[in-house]
Known about the structure:
Elements: E1 4-10, E2 27-28, E3 31-32, H1 33-39, E4 47-54, H2 56-65, H3 67-73, E5 75-79, H4 84-92, E6 101-104, H5 114-127, E7 129-135, E8 140-144, E9 147-152, E10 158-167, H6 168-176, H7 187-193, E11 199-202, H8 215-226
Parallel strand pairs: 1-4, 1-6, 4-5, 7-11
Antiparallel strand pairs: 2-3, 6-10, 7-10, 8-9
Helix pairs in contact: 6-7
Amino acid sequence: MASFAVIIPAAGAGKRFGGKLKKPFAQLDGRPIFLRTIELFLSRPDVCQVLLAVAPDDYDVVKEKYAANLMFMGIKLVRGGEERFDSVRLALEGVPEEADFVCVHDAVRPCLLDSWIDSVFEQAALTGAAILAAPLTGTIKRVADSKIEETVSRAGLYESQTPQVFAKELLRRAHSERPADLQPTDDAQLVERLGEPVAIVASDRRNIKITTGGEMALATAILKGLSRKPRGSGPRGPFEEAQW
């Protein structure tokens, strides 16, 4: 069985989210978003390590406030960087030797099905690189100065999501060879730049990335609709103890 390490970047400032809390630590139906997200990968026999990358300024606070959670869940806490790709690069340094693949998943994407994880892991194991993505279904307009310039065909267009899963050494090479002037918005962009193929595993719009405060209600509704019980879940115990 292939072995996967999971990196959860949670170091972003989240300026569009609003409020006093950074979005990964906001409460979603009674629990912090990042804990709900991490639970998605717990008790999977193919996951050897989960790494949580937080902003350097948050590191000591998270380590103290969520000590019970991190210990109970077996999470490795690492200091992230200024940009998301910096956080992933720094977390890669802590990926254990036994990991064959690295999965990168946004801390604020808690609405994920086991079947999606299974599929993207399986595809990455076959091809070396695979991501979840949702086909665009709306009418797409290219806009300049608040005016429509053209209607763009949506044929073959997908919205990139996470998890994004890569052979470990491929992802390391992609980050090490990033040009200084390139600020990628996802890891697949770095791998694409190497000329390596990245497979698409289709998901849907339920795999929402919580970006604004208004999307919390939508994520709550999606979670209830999914009626998902985390693998190996039992009494909440330390999940309820820590508060930001």
